[in-house]
Amino acid sequence: MNVVEVENLSFSYGDDINAIDDISFKIEMGAYTTIIGHNGSGKSTVAKLLIGLLEPLKGNIRIEGVPLSLENLDFIRSKVGIVFQNPDNQFIGSTVRDDIAFGLENHLVPQKDMDDIINKFSEKVKMKDFLNSEPSRLSGGQKQRVAIAGILAIAPDIIIFDEATSMLDPQGKDDIKSMIMELHNESKITIISITHDIEEVVKSDKVIVMNNGKIVSEGTPDKVMVDKKLLIDVGLDIPFSMKIVEELRKNKIKINDEVTMEGLVNKLANLI
After folding, report:
1. Rounded to two decimals, what is the model's pTM?
2. Which partner from 21, 46, 229, 271 sits 20 to 30 angstroms from 143, CA to CA?
3. Per-residue pLDDT tens over the stretch 202-246
4. CB atoms within 10 A of CB 215
5. How much is the pLDDT for 120?
6. C-alpha angle 263-267-271 in degrees, rounded to nearest 5
7. Domain CATH for 37
8. Cα separations (Å) of 211 from 18, 152, 216, 218, 235?
9. Closest alpha carbon to 160 in 25, 46, 12, 20
10. Does a structural domain hold residue 142?
11. pLDDT of residue 244
């Protein structure tokens, strides 16, 4: 079942150039989809269109079969949550507890049920010990954990991560990426990750490559990420495993393409 369907979607910020130019794609329920592209490729604009923060020039978006429209916006936002790039811009409450409660209040969750929900999801993201902490006392990674807890608390079917690790330090990035992968593996929630991180991409179920507002490639990572010319042409990095494969071939070692390090290790083991 496709939970996201995008057909002939276009959008402009008011100039003569379309930031999104007639794109179409589908995302299956429970899939981990990554959308990649250089800065200005349109990938973050897609995220904002999917959640109804921007209105398209033309085209259609359906979430779980329901057209995205002003009349259906409350339904759409009950099904789709989003974690943005800047952790400081999405912390609303004066404490961690208040921040998680904010979304519950907007969804009219009874007060008597809130404490259990807040405790459950703050523990899920390893922030239960910080429920009474102010945002100024939290690291960027901790703030993103709180944002994720707030989204999980309202129980969406789809979560969009809009470059959610790009402003974090290396440890914070690794922690959040591990948490996203864990959420997907445990709950099979549908995840859409707008990212520059090639190592995240190769672990996803599907990758969509964007350039100048268009989709230039899509498919499974093992099909898309071996196209080195495409990646270089659109300003993206090549998976580290593919760089190793290239060096091995220069040294007359016959080995097939491999986009993950785990797969490469297994192939090398078979050569010994």
Report:
1. 0.90
2. 46
3. 999 999 999 999 999 999 999 999 898 999 999 998 888 888 888
4. 21
5. 94
6. 165
7. 3.40.50.300
8. 12, 31, 7, 12, 9
9. 46
10. yes
11. 87
